Prior knowledge:
Blueprint: H1 2-12, H2 15-43, E1 49-55, H3 63-71, E2 73-74, E3 77-78, E4 80-84, H4 87-95, E5 101-105, E6 110-113, H5 118-143, H6 146-156, H7 174-186, H8 189-197, H9 205-212, H10 217-246, H11 256-279, H12 284-301, H13 309-316, H14 318-323, H15 325-339, H16 342-380
Parallel strand pairs: 1-4, 1-5
Antiparallel strand pairs: 2-3, 5-6
Helix pairs in contact: 1-10, 2-7, 2-10, 5-6, 7-15, 8-11, 8-12, 10-11, 11-12, 11-15, 11-16, 15-16
Amino acid sequence: MIYYMYRVKRLLRNKTLFFWTILFPLGLATLFKFAFSSITEKTWGFDTIPVAVTTESGVAAEAMFVEFLEGMENDGAAFFSVTETDKDNAEKLLSEKEVTAVIVLGEETEVLIYENGLNATVVKTVVDNYLQSRDIFMEAAMTGRLAEVTESFADETETLAVREFEGASKDPMIQYFQALVAMASLYGAMYGLLNTGEMNQNQTVVAARRLAAPMKKLPTVLADVAAACTIQYLQFLLILAYYLLVLKVDFGRVNGWLFVAGALYSLFGVLIGYFFGCVLQKEKGIADSVMTGCIMFSCFLGGLMVGNMRMILETSAPIVNRINPATLIAESMHALCVIGDMGWFARCMISIVLWCILLIIVSVVALGYHQRKIGREGKKA
């Protein structure tokens, strides 16, 4: 226990690691929040949509159409706020952004918009569907098939119940924050690499003193891993708290499984550091560079730089999403917090556990190989 506390203090005193594992992810999350909040609100936010309805000169207004728009509701709230006015005033309202769209009724009904976006698309879709249905019924009335068409519509039309994921995030930019958590978790590899560097007597003076200490190697290694995982897990909790309490990021469902997953993410990151430290223990600088490059490439594939990268890979190379560390972390959070698919979440967790087992095996084998090699070189000397 005393040695465990010593390692915790030792790791916390490393200012470089503190910056990259805590300050950098928090700063990047803040930049993401400022950069994406306006995009999300503009493109994906939804309130009652203000529209203006006008008519071409000499064409009577369709009272049924206006009634149809005013009758649409979204969770008990009006879907559209309708303003009936003349064409000049309607265009003025549009130019001043008082309305999202202007619907000009006539022989060729038009929808005028100021800028593209979700609300403008909704208006255009609703108008197109109304006009198509109106034309079908008018043609049926002229051909005497109104009753037949009405019955056909009643048989084929399905009532769809819109069910939102209860408590889930509806922010499409949440994928970037999930990828950022993955990056912060994988940065725990820096603690694992530091621990391995201080286990090898040919790298640091601290390592030589530790090896001379009257302690068995296995308890020493376990204490090192426990200290690194403790710090990394606390950092995971800090980042999550910063997301939820400070940045007010809609992270979706936050339950006990997320905190269990966070512990596994922390262990995963630390073991990656041990892997690189044991396999490339001859040159610490090379191990550090290779490890950082691999982590950043993994985060790129996980969607940190390109948000839809995971979807692109799912259609072109799905195996990458099944084995990429950053993708597994990000998708496990997406499955748990947004989709609510515990099966998907479990598959991601199993993959991470298999990764951890593989990293442990390879690290032990590599460490044993290097120790035997050092022993042989010592005997020759």
